[in-house]
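Summary for the steering committee. The consortium agreed at its last meeting that each partner would contribute one worked example illustrating the joint modelling workflow. Our contribution is presented below. We chose a case with several input lines so that the handling of multiple components could be demonstrated. No manual editing was applied between input and output; the record is shown as generated.
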Amino acid sequence: MYRYDQFDRTLLAERVAEFRGQVARRLSGELTEEEFKPLRLMNGVYLQLHAYMLRISIPYGTLSSQQLRTLAQVARSYDRGYGHFTTRQNIQFNWIKLEQLPDAMALLASAGMHGMQTSGNCTRNVTTDQWAAVAPDEIEDPRVWAEILRQHMTLHPEFSFLPRKFKIALTAASHDRAAVRVHDIGLRLHRNGAGEVGFEVMVGGGLGRTPFIAKTIKPFLPKRDLLSYVEAIVRVYNQFGRRDNIYKARIKILVHELGAEAFAKEVDAEWQTIKDGALALDPAVVADVAAHFSYPRYAELDDNPPELARTRAADRRFAAWLGNSVANHKVPGYAIVTLSLKPEGGPPGDATAEQMETIADLTDRYSFGEIRVGHEQNLALPSVAQRDLPELWRALDNIGVATPNVGLVSDIIACPGLDYCSLANTRSIPVAQEITRRFRDLDLARDLGRLHINISGCINACGHHHVGHIGILGVEKNDQEFFQITIGGQADEHAALGSLIGPAVPYEEVADVVEDLIAAYLELRERPDEIFLDTVKRVGVEPFKERVYATR
Amino acid sequence: MRLVKGCRVVEDRFVRVLDEAPIPDSVPVLIPAARFLADAAEILAREAPVGVLWPNSRRVAELAPYLDRLALVALVFPTFRDGRAYSQARLLREHYGFRGELRATGDVLRDQFVFMLRAGFDAFEVKKDADADAFAEAARRYSVFYQPTGDGRMPALRARLEQAQPGPVAALAESAR
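What follows is the complete predicted structure of the assembly.
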């Protein structure tokens, strides 16, 4: 956990006071809705189809149990008893009343949380690997750098009115769990030939209407230069990014239009003038930020304790969960536990206040009081002693967050869609719910293996459909909901965009098409462990297309 | 619209000259960028102070050769969502070392004052009278700053260290007491 100190708390209090004044000016009519809009957006407040929505940032996906309890309290006191975890390590409350917003924000601030910069044309929540500091394949904790960036970008006087929103993600592991290549800036900590650790800097990734995979403009950036280099990138973007067309305003379009090389040149010219100034990171400053993180005091334990083996042998359901939702930890005797927020028939990513409170209690008992939020809209308890897994599993199963479908067909990423969102063309939650019902057989799901289905209810791609192994995009045709299906996308270190399989299909047929795709895969795969994505890569789109459209 | 400087509403001593109008003698003038660049030497030869109204779509590097002879650079916020002039302001102050008046014009509202002050602006053509009156209060809204800019305020990253281990700055404050 990062410990907020007097500086962070003072700033939050000042922010809440400012927002209280802005809401008062709006309610009195001193501010028009037009003028209020950018102010509320910079505090994470959207006006949706039915009500205001409040989006709260969970920096680098780390929450304390106390913070999760506070989120539960917000859900109870100001919303309808639940919250929705998003694909960018945020949580949304969908039924907030304008006049109660300042109080909800004050409550959040008491636990060191806020909605600052979760919306608007500014730098958004800096995200990273939800397994930071516990994953065996990581070279160091990326959250230290995410926190340095978070502070630097919070209320940045130059970059609060950018051409468009701006998203930064980091990873420090060999397997990218943070989808850094589909961000405006992606940063990958790695070791160079000389053994030093620094950043690979990628820019111009993004989904939406015009998807791009980010391009590397700096293969190795020394750590001391992180802030100056990012500052140079954003300064170039702020001045030269397009502002004439909202659909061409993201940095990916600037990088594409200038070319990555010319863009990198502009950045470098700017960087040379500032790199040795106040932004050069003093190792003492970095050490101080790192010292604000607390780490568990792990016990000396052995892997595979007897309690675990006994329950695994005795209980088939436990064994299935253990095989699916529990991952290796860097410390012997511990494990990383993913909590599936994708129950059969449920809206992906939703958690009730009761669930949040129970999870908070469970992490206090079993995982050093910390919770992680991942971009797949699931939670994780990062450090559970393996001997406690049977007990923890029973408790998680009781509250419905132990469905052993993590990374499988029913672990669907979906945006809120037309059930909430004013931009959506189609529903997406009911599409996800129907697919989870079709694939309720967990043995079948396990046999299918890793399979990511991502659903967006409009071209803005909040459900990351471009990078789903199966991507589903809602479009409107003559006032009807239709869906385009892509296959072969992926979000990790081999990031790729999916290919369209053919004409859009109506709402009622989406789950049938997914069943057809999977039937085709089962026939086409060479071995049981060749996953859907690999079959698509090997045989191409055509056989899948034929199967789906043969009867349509 | 009111002009705010030093947290107070003040009289604007600069006369705004349009593209075609004659430039009056012996009064401070504010001149559009294109006209200034076309005739810079002659305009700067006048006795009275000169200011340039610089659009947010032009690189400030073009203005660099003249900065030491300009009394005022006015930057433009066509809408308050268009933040290009923040970068221009920082470049003028921090890269080119401009020390004259740096004025924010256009859609200038209360909620931008802190950002503008931090970016280096020291004069503000404030759109609404109520916002101009609230300037001092709005400027004091925040006491914590996370990033270093040319305004010299200590960023929190550094302030934490100073607090833990009083360095030169804190020691100086201590000895002054």
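The longest strand of chain B covers residues 72-77. The first helix of chain B runs from residue 33 to 38.
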